[in-house]
Amino acid sequence: MTATPTPRVTIKDVAARAGVSKGAVSLAFNRKPGLSEATRERIFRAARELGWAPSPTARTLAGSRVDVVGLAVCRPARLLGLEPFYMEFVSGVESVLVERSCSLLLRLVRGQDEEAGLLESWWRGRQIGGSILVDFRADDPRPAVARRLGLPVVAVGHPSLTGGLTSVWTDDATAVTEAVRYLAALGHRRIARVGGAAALGHTAIRTAAFDGAVRALEPPARAWQVATDFSGDAGARATRSLLTAAPPERPTAIVYDNDIMAVAGLSVAAEMGLRVPDDVSLLAWDDSQLCRLTHPTLSAMSHDVHGFGADVARTLFEVITGEGPGSHPVPTPVLTPRGSTAPPKV
Amino acid sequence: MTATPTPRVTIKDVAARAGVSKGAVSLAFNRKPGLSEATRERIFRAARELGWAPSPTARTLAGSRVDVVGLAVCRPARLLGLEPFYMEFVSGVESVLVERSCSLLLRLVRGQDEEAGLLESWWRGRQIGGSILVDFRADDPRPAVARRLGLPVVAVGHPSLTGGLTSVWTDDATAVTEAVRYLAALGHRRIARVGGAAALGHTAIRTAAFDGAVRALEPPARAWQVATDFSGDAGARATRSLLTAAPPERPTAIVYDNDIMAVAGLSVAAEMGLRVPDDVSLLAWDDSQLCRLTHPTLSAMSHDVHGFGADVARTLFEVITGEGPGSHPVPTPVLTPRGSTAPPKV
DNA sequence: GCGCACTCCTTAACCGGTTCAGAAATCTCC
DNA sequence: GGAGATTTCTGAACCGGTTAAGGAGTGCGC
User: Fold this and answer.
1) pLDDT for the residue A126
2) Would residue A342 count as lying in a domain?
């Protein structure tokens, strides 16, 4: 790989060929006033002939915007690989970035403190023009950092978690409530939930909502909740422990906080000789294609993760261009019944 | 989000505080000779006190290296979300990048031509210092582009596919052969393979290897091969069509090119009332956690995707620092027998 | 005492753009 | 036809670093 000395073509070459100054070329390419239509056209033609495009690096240095947005994701690598959610989310974000010829700077981190430091160095080094923040926890340091730096960000999470930052969020509480009501309507009176990481803000929201929804049922129902780390293994363990009890002490329906755990739950039921949905109903969250690949297929609270990512990216651009803080709810996940839920037969 | 006018601290501030010139600071931070130990120390102290770090943008513009590597991935968004492989691969790449404070620029593209254009604009715009190339096809335009540009790249794929670029690859042919021999040793004589996208180079390699391996069996065996798009749906369709034949015309073992399709195959078998592994054995590829979550658990050709990503990243750095083309095989996937494979009982 | 090599540091040009003050040319209006 | 306003374009400074050339000071040999 001998580095061919690629003859870099710069703004100067374009200017020379169009017979104007560098400044004129810059004006043309930034669609700023002060150039005749003829000159503008001549400049564009020259640029086209030379195959020139302005260097983002130089642009950034010269003080204009930065065409890169950051995303730091904080989960152990093994889990990330498994969660369909993120890749789909990223692809949604990308779809919007591409339109504005922006790029995504991705980094896996091990905690919010590391992420906070990363945001600071990204921003101070002018590496990013804004950032997407996910996975909020209690006492999250990131809102304070973003505010201190003046870094444009959009937070993915309920406004109660995101410290006043512009946020985009799904109404998890309503979705959980709907799930519980649905199961109750099927006749379930012993309902469990295998939740995500307890430290995560949205897990807390779902936990509370689940609690409230079950409490509101009439006739009253019995409820269980378990926290996990979102991994399939944890989902399997939780399911196993829930289902080992004898029937009257055993849930007849289980709600999972993601689809991986639901898949794991399904296989645990099979391994224990329980029929799904006759002996136990299973309901997943984050409906990915995975839910349609199991047998029986998994009922799920589904939402458009790709579209969600796109919304987040669009909102980030609004923030970057100076819109005030806001809260953008996206459609509540809707229940998609499939083969894993039915009235209890026991 | 009123952008606080963050007072940017630059190399000039550090120089002033240390009582030296900009040049000296630069020398210190690039560990170049020509500074006394005392001065060097004084400069670092000043930088530390001011919380300064050199701006990557300015560094790039000034002609030194670029601390970003590119990765363009070309699959429909829906599939990407599902394939555990990529996220895990990315996390492996990241693990190495972080050590060298590099970042990953990620982009989803729709074809190699789009990717080739992207590489060119990334490189000419000095946005990346090198790139990782995945998913090689016949007549892939990317090697030529990389060579023409002098862009340092590392190709993920067998040397026969990557047009002389430095490549990192798993020995798929051997792995496929091993899979076939294993199934044959269990007693299978009717073996099918649900392959990936036919246009992909490594799919072709596996197809040929499968063919050869089956042909070499003694006593002779019957073989089927189907191409898919890697999606679970396609895997399900392929499985369904393979298993609808009457027993003597039906494979007793199926090998899948990724784990998603194997999961889908498992559920199709269940849906058709076939027992796994008694009626049909299933063998996955790209062993992710998913394979341990099904019931029965999926036997798989497993390899360390995270480590693979790390190897690729390390190799890219070698290329960037000027090593010649090379070929770096990584360990061949090994067979991990689990519950989905057994001697045929029919 | 002088030339010479060596160490340590500074100076200034440069990377490839943006931006703004102001010059040159054209238009407007009386 | 000339003052003033407007349009169009240029020149130079600047962003925050890197780097090559060069200068000041020191030590050494003879």
Assistant:
1) 87
2) no
Q: Is the CB of B27 under 7 A from strand D?
A: yes
| Same domain? A178 vs A239 | yes
The confidence score (pLDDT) of residue B6 equals 57
Interface of A with B in 82-101 (CB under 8 A): 82-88, 90-92, 94-95, 98
Label residue A322 left, alpha or beta by phi (over 0 means left) and psi (-120 to 50 means alpha): left
Same domain assignment for residues A194 and A291: yes
Contact B84 A82 (CB under 8 A): yes
Judgement on whether residues B124 and B155 belong to the same structural domain of the protein:
yes
The label of the residue with tokens 């063919």 reads B211
Number of domains forming the structure of chain A? 3
Assess if residue B125 is contained within a domain. yes
Based on the domain organization, do A295 and A177 belong to the same domain?
A: yes
Mean pLDDT of A223-241: 93
Cβ under 8 Å to B: A residues 231-260:
231-233, 235-236, 260
pLDDT digits (tens, 9 = 90+) for B37-77: 999 999 999 999 999 999 999 999 997 778 899 999 887 65
Residues B166, B216: one domain?
no
Q: Which residues are CB-contacts of A270 (< 8 A; sequence separation ≥ 6)?
A: A276, B295
CATH code (residue A249) = 3.40.50.2300
In the predicted structure, residue A259 carries a pLDDT above the cut 70: yes
CB contact under 8 A, B1 and A322: yes
Q: What is the pLDDT of residues B95-118, one digit of tens each?
A: 899 888 888 998 888 888 889 999
pLDDT lower than 50: segments of chain B = 1-5
Q: Which of A257, A290, A284, A260 is nearest to A340 (CA)?
A: A284
A47 with A84, same domain: the answer is: no
Q: Which nucleotides of C are covered by protein (CB under 7 A)?
A: 7-21
Whether residue A62 is contained in a domain is answered as: no
| H or E element at residue B71 | strand B68-73
B92: exposed, middle or buried (Cβ count in 10 Å: 0-12, 13-18, 19+):
buried
Whether residue B165 sits in one domain with residue B104: yes
**Residues on chain B touching A292 (C-beta within 8 angstroms):** 232-233
Same domain as B311, residue B165: yes
Please give the residue that has the higher pLDDT: either A322 or A302: A302
- Are the beta carbons of A1 and B290 separated by less than 8 Å? no
Which pLDDT does position A80 carry in this prediction? 57
Q: Does A251 map to a domain?
A: yes
Distance CA A166, CA A184 (A): 36
Instruction: Check A84 against B81: CB less than 8 A apart.
Output: yes
Q: Looking at chain A from residue 168 to 227, which residues have their Cβ under 8 Å from any Cβ of chain B?
A: none
A40-56 pLDDT tens trace: 999 999 999 999 999 99
CATH of the domain at B37: 1.10.260
Containing H/E element for B226? strand B222-226
Q: What range does the domain containing B49 cover?
A: 11-54
Bridging pattern class, strands A299-302 and A334-336: antiparallel
Residue type at position A92: G
**Which residues in chain A touch residue B243, judged by CB atoms under 8 angstroms apart?**
none
- State the DSSP H helix or E strand holding residue B207, giving kind and residue range, or none if neither: helix B201-215
